[in-house]
Amino acid sequence: MTYSDGGGGTPGQSLMFAATKLNTRNHRLQWLFRALFGLMTLILIVPVGIILGVLVVRGGPAISLEFLFSFPTDAMTAGGIFPALVGTMWLVAVSLIASVPVGVAAAIYLSEYAVDNWLTRVINLAIINLAGVPSIVHALFGVGAFVIFAGFGTSILAASLTLAVMTLPVVIVATRESLQAVPMAFREACWNMGATRWQTIRIVVLPNAISGILTGVILAVSRTAGETAPIMFTGVAFFFPFLPHSVFDQTMAMAMHLFVISTAVPGASDELKYGTALTLITLVLLMNAVSIGFRSYLRGKKKW
Amino acid sequence: MLTERVQLSTSIDLDHRGRDWYADKAVTFLVFVGGISAIVLIIGIFVFITKEGLGFIAGSLDVREFFGSLAWRPTSPTKPTYGILGLIAGTASVTGLAMVVSVPFSLGAAIFIGEFATGRLRETLKVLVELLAAIPSVVWGFIGLSLLNPLIIDIFDVPVGLGVLNSGIILGLMAAPIMTTIAEDALKAVPDTYREAAEAMGATKWQVIFRVVLPAGRNGLVAAVLLGVGRGFGETMAVLMASGNSIKIPTSPFDSVRALTATIAAELGDAPVGSDHYRALFTLGILLFVVTFIINLTADLVVRRAGRK
């Protein structure tokens, strides 16, 4: 770096720094790269924004209380989406009953009991792979294991269990993270009082992590509501004109309904399709937004 | 002295096994069962799809025809053939295009979010990317079908807009947020001391990024791309809806193709349980499972090697 000396060392005058050619070039380059990468980020986000905008404009007029709470009519070319909404709620509820206890147990094991050995590494690898298995392979597993082998037939139970297997990694990872965020000193204090490991977990660790676990559960709900492939062959019907009464019934579901009316029902109006798509995406994004908002609220509130 | 100590310890009964002790043991066991559930399930998935597919692999499978023939005609009444070359070409072309579209932008976005953006902008962008990753694949398929399809027809003046281009773009948009998140994590894992050292030497921000951060986070970035490939390879609904579904090796981006995943989704409903067709579809499932397993394993090894350094 060079500098121009302002006046041959006259007292009272400080050194004046000036940019060299190299400095200027570097600054230009830096500005250029910043703009380039910013543009790339925009290109990633803006099209999706436009797409969502189009969904809102075209699907918005279709959505009304009547649309949400009435049955499809005229061979699914008109009417509402009520049975699909109810079906999705059944699927979400039943799959949570299966995945949350197992997922939380797995996370407690990994965070509170497991030491760093080969078994833990294998478990972590299994979780990564479970999350990476294609959804259609989960569907095949559901057909083989729940529909045929366990004898549940095509039912809400079989479909929900398939979804539960798929969302298990989401629950495990989120829960483990929130358990590990509880400071070690909390546990040590409790152990020093003579509490057993389980008492410590029940009284100290879980209450301090419960909100983090909840964010994970909400994420799992949004995944469950949006999945189509795993439920296609395990329990969700093209059209099922009744509300399900038990877990052994078939049902309709939002994601599957969107697939059906946009590919297999020739006369379905655009308004109906866009309305269904908008409802589904609103449901999923809302759930995610709640989860994210909840998480950042907790992060702000945390005292340790 | 010794006897006194023994008496003391028995009087407060250090070895008391009460209800809490048993509860603790029971929970330890239950939690362990939960802990290994992921292993049990991943093995279970492999066992069950293999069980259903095995009859085909052991019986009618002709390996050379399976991997070398374009003719996937499982429902032919005279002579059903099971050649998956066209399906592999379909999956490869769509995933390939998706990666060409999304890898540069994902890495660019990761660099911007991780290295340039600060404060509120950075948090907002991270949340946006996370929300993008949550859009269900059937909605992406619907977008390909009803928004991108007419757009491609208009712009390029082709008769049908469903094909490699459409599903490649859709898949690229789907995979990008995931790759961005993982790549940004990889950049974040590079210690700040590296950056500070480089900055202390007078390096500008982009010099720090290109000479220090990117080389140090290289393995994580490779893993991010690998996981993106895995995502594209395994994606079902979007590809089923946007690719046009005719089995061939594409010669132009507007050609309609059929992916491995989409084949299972499209045909499983019509294949009678236990038939050769049904078992062949499960064999495709085995193939998908094994390939994604290898991709995930490789990504994990790459990251682990980065961690050891």
CATH H-tier superfamily of the domain at 92-268 and 292-308 in chain B: MetI-like
Low-confidence stretches of chain B: none
CATH superfamily of the largest domain in chain A: MetI-like
Report the helical percentage of chain B: over 70%
CATH hierarchy, class of the largest domain in chain A: Mainly Alpha
Structural class of chain B: mainly alpha
Strand order of the largest sheet of chain B: 1-2
Which percent bin holds the helix content of chain A?
A: over 70%
How far the N terminus sits from the C terminus of chain A, by CA atoms, comes to: 45 Å
State the order of secondary-structure elements of chain B, H for helix, E for strand.
HHHHEEHHHHHHHHHH
Q: What is the subunit arrangement here?
A: heterodimer
Using the coordinates shown, work out and report the CATH topology of the domain at 92-268 and 292-308 in chain B: MetI-like fold
Rg of chain A, nearest Å: 27 Å
What is the second-level CATH architecture of the domain at 92-268 and 292-308 in chain B? Orthogonal Bundle
CATH topology of the largest domain in chain A: MetI-like fold
Major β-sheet annotation of chain B: 2 strands, antiparallel
The radius of gyration computed from the alpha-carbon positions of chain B, rounded to a whole number of angstroms, is: 27 Å
Give the strand order, joined by hyphens, for the main sheet of chain A. Answer: 1-2
Average pLDDT of chain A, to the nearest integer? Answer: 85
Count of helices of chain A? 11
How would you describe this protein?
The complex is a heterodimer of chains A (304) and B (309). Chain A folds into 2 domains: 3-62, no CATH class; 65-301, Orthogonal Bundle (MetI-like fold), CATH 1.10.3720.10. With 304 residues, chain A is mostly helical. In chain A, the strands form 2 sheets. Chain A has a two-stranded antiparallel sheet with strand order 1-2. A two-stranded antiparallel sheet of chain A has the order 3-4. In chain A, 71% of the residues lie in helices and 3% in strands. By secondary structure, chain B is an all-alpha fold. Chain B has a domain at 92-268 and 292-308: MetI-like fold, CATH 1.10.3720. Chain B is built from 14 helices and 2 strands; from the N terminus they run ααααββαααααααααα. Chain B has helices spanning 2-12, 19-35, 37-58, 63-68, 85-116, 119-134, 137-156, 164-188, 192-200, 205-216, 218-234, 237-242, 260-267, 276-308; strands spanning 72-73, 81-82. Chain B has a two-stranded antiparallel ribbon. In chain B, α3 (37-58) crosses α14 and α9 packs antiparallel against α10 (205-216). Chain B is flat and about 75 Å long. At the A-B interface, α1, α3, α4, α5 and α6 of A face α2, α3, α5, α6 and α7 of B.
